[in-house]
Design brief:
This protein is about 70% helix and about 5% strand. It is built from seven helices and three strands, in the order H-E-H-H-E-E-H-H-H-H. The protein has helices at about 10-20, 25-35, 40-50, 75-100, 105-135, 140-145, 150-170; strands spanning about 25, 55-60, 65-70. A hairpin with a 6-residue loop joins strand 2 and strand 3. GO terms for molecular function: DNA binding; DNA-binding transcription factor activity.
Length: about 170
């Protein structure tokens, strides 16, 4: 699953092991369990730390570091979404913002800038919506997700009502 989300196989295997482990694991335990070299485990753990998906802890009387995942699946979801936003959405918005500062020199450039403006507005809207989602509690996020197609039905009903009301006034 991890490779489909843009992380390499080893990082995905380590994260999966940590996810299903009841207690945090030491890097040697991870390597032994998965048959991965200590250096590869170390590099992969650094990648998971960069994604803010693992927590490093210590046990009393033990100098080694142990690794575990974030608390809930909602914490994990938020961390992955925030990092993807930082790595993908924000640089795209920045590039589009910069491109939109350039004046159009021709009709085709004007058309291209308009398309980029539309893309920028959509990405900015999604980015702002993401901010709102990040502030929701796990319970509220779950309720929102469960609404699913009910939201579409509500919007369709609203559109029909507006059309009907406009038809009555005209």
């Amino acid at each position: 699953m991890g490779s489909r989300w843009g992380i390499n196989r080893t990082v995905g295997q380590i994260y999966a092991l940590l996810l299903v482990s009841e207690n945090p694991l030491h890097a040697d335990d991870i390597g032994d369990t998965l048959g991965i070299s200590r250096s590869n485990v170390s590099i992969s753990l650094k990648e998971l730390e960069a994604w803010q998906l693992v927590r490093r802890t210590r046990k009393l009387g033990d100098r080694r570091e142990y690794y575990g995942t974030l608390g809930s699946v909602w914490d994990i979801f938020k961390a992955v979404a925030a990092e993807r936003r930082r790595r993908e959405v924000e640089p795209t918005l920045s590039m589009l913002r910069q491109a939109l500062l350039e004046p159009a020199a021709s009709t085709s450039e004007h058309y291209a800038l308009e398309r980029m403006r539309e893309m920028y507005e959509l990405a900015e809207l999604a980015n702002n919506w993401f901010d709102e989602l990040q502030r929701l509690s796990p319970e509220s996020l779950l309720q929102l997700m469960r609404l699913g197609s009910k939201v579409q039905k509500l919007l369709t009903l609203k559109e029909r009502t507006v059309v009907a009301l406009n038809g009555m006034g005209g």
